[in-house]
Amino acid sequence: MEDISLVTVVFMLPLVGLVLMLLFARTEQGYRWGALVTSLVTFGVSLLLLRNFDTSVSGLQMVQKVDWITADSFTIRYYVGVDGISIWLVMLTTFIMPLAILASFNPIKDRVRLYYLFMVLMEWAMLGVFVAQDLFLFYIFWEVTLVPMYFLIGIWGAEDRIYAAVKFFLYTMAGSLLMLLAILWLGNKAGTFSLPDILAKLETGELSLSTNTARWLFLAFGIAFAIKVPMWPLHSWLPDAHVQAPTAGSVILAGVLLKMGTYGFVRFNLPLFPEASKTFAPYVAVLAVIGIIYGAWVSYGQKDVKKLVAYSSISHLGFVMLGIFALNPAGIQGGILQMVNHGISTGGLFLLVGVLYERRHTKLMSAFGGIWRAMPLYSGIALVIVLSSMGLPGLNGFVGEFTILLGSAGSSVLSWWFTFFAAIGIILAAVYMLYMFNTVFMGALDKEENKRLPDLNWQELWSLVPILVMVFVIGLQAGYFFKFMDGSVKELVDQVNTYVMTAAGQ
Questions:
Q1: Which of 240, 341, 441, 453 is most buried per CB count within 10 Å?
Q2: What is the rounded distance in angstroms from the CA atom of residue 323 to the CA atom of residue 400?
Q3: Angle at which helices 305-324 and 274-300 cross, to 10°
Q4: Cα–Cα distance for residue pair 249/271, rounded to 1 Å
């Protein structure tokens, strides 16, 4: 029998934990701690994944491949592995989940058992998305993530939760159907759903796609991923979902789920359709820059602090998309790192909002003011996370944004104007984040209900401290993170550039 790979172990641990919870957990507290222990063990084993990763290898590592469904014309496989593109997204998932679960201990008091089962199921499905190397397997996990998030919003969300949950589900499902059609067509044409096998056939000429076919397939995959990011103008589901979701739901949504869209572009669109990627790069970059400016501008106009953070995601992920479609190593590496940075910083912001909401049961900025005097520890942590979201040098957000702008400025397919307008987005980010911080934390403590607010408890502190640590670690040791990406990203760019140079010579 084939040895079980470490990737399979990490990927399957949440499922094992879920089964054990169903079999042995008898109380609500049992489910709470069962989910937390499951996520912590998964994170611990994922560190072994990181330790065993060979940075000198550009291809897939710790691969497991088993035939699942075999027919005359195609084969569907359980095919998993990690490379420099996916390793940090796997780590992000296993890092964020224990924090989200811990942050749920006090707020979630209704249907506790069901809640934590959905949380563990969510982790399993998200890991599946990042490790799957078979298109059909990828699609299964892509769809499975919809179910727990739909219920997390629909059951434990705020007053308009049903509307937000249905809107989230329908938007994502509409894009998913287009991707399914593209997967079915491509798998039938190639005789396999295995991504490495399809890429090998494209390279050898055994499988060829006409220019028009490749572009249509690019759009089918791209629309599904763009909705998930979400890119402007396909973003309208996101603010509703964030505002209505429970705190942990928002943390997972911002921290990991949105990255499935940006990851999809890097994993599938760029290597499968390099000519189409080159052709559409300026158009995607235009939408990305509009998203950067629009997200920042609309954020400034918000009165609800949670909605402000939600719209900021549109702006931040616009940077990621700009980096990806610079189609050079600096841009793509910056984009991947910024996926991680956004997950950490924005996940932290939603945790911070959740702390205030639990105390005051309002998200209106006007309800606060002078919070620093009442909650100094909380406010100090908030300041660092806000500055990281702004991209202050020395913190994590700066490295990602700087590298993206470097990639954009040096891109052979994008003009300098994209870099210019994206840089304006950085200035606007400082405006709306400092406005929010000043309104909520600074000024006079003149509202009686705010004077008695308790500072962070142990559960809140331990859900925020790891975020704080990673803000500095990435900001000061970014080279360590780039080292893991180098080989895989350079191989991807070389593949795309073959077509870019060919097109330029014609």
A1: 341
A2: 9
A3: 160
A4: 32
Q: Give φ, ψ of 391 to 5 degrees.
A: 90, 40
Reading the block at residue 311, the tokens are 């719209």
Rounded CA gap, 100 and 79, in Å?
29
Band (pLDDT 50/70/90 cuts) for residue 502 is very low
Residue whose structure tokens are 């065993």 = 52
Residue among 374, 416, 357 at smallest CA distance from 158: 357
pLDDT digits (tens, 9 = 90+) for 95-145: 999 999 999 888 888 888 999 999 999 999 999 999 999 999 999 999 999
- Choose among 256, 264, 252: nearest CA to 178: 264
Which residue type does 167 have?
Answer: K
Residue 262 CA to residue 267 CA, distance in Å, equals 9
Residue 144: which residues within 8 A CB-CB, separation 6 or more?
121, 125, 128
Give the integer Cα–Cα distance in Å for 83 and 64: 13
Helix pair angle (396-409, 329-360), 10° resolution: 150
Spatial contact of 155 and 161, defined as CB atoms under 8 Å apart: yes
The model's pLDDT over 315-347, given as tens digits with 9 standing for 90+, comes to 889 999 999 998 889 999 999 999 999 999 999
Express the helix, strand and coil content of the chain in percent, nearest 5 each.
75, 5, 20
Is residue 315 a contact partner of residue 230, using CB atoms and an 8 Å limit?
no
Rounded CA-CA distance 7/132 in Å is 10
> What is the distance between the alpha carbons of residues 215 and 225, in angstroms, rounded to a whole number?
15
Distance between CA 393 and CA 403 in Å, rounded? 12
36 in Cβ contact with 98 (< 8 Å): yes
Whole-number Å distance between alpha carbons of 400 and 408: 12
* Size of the chain in residues: 506
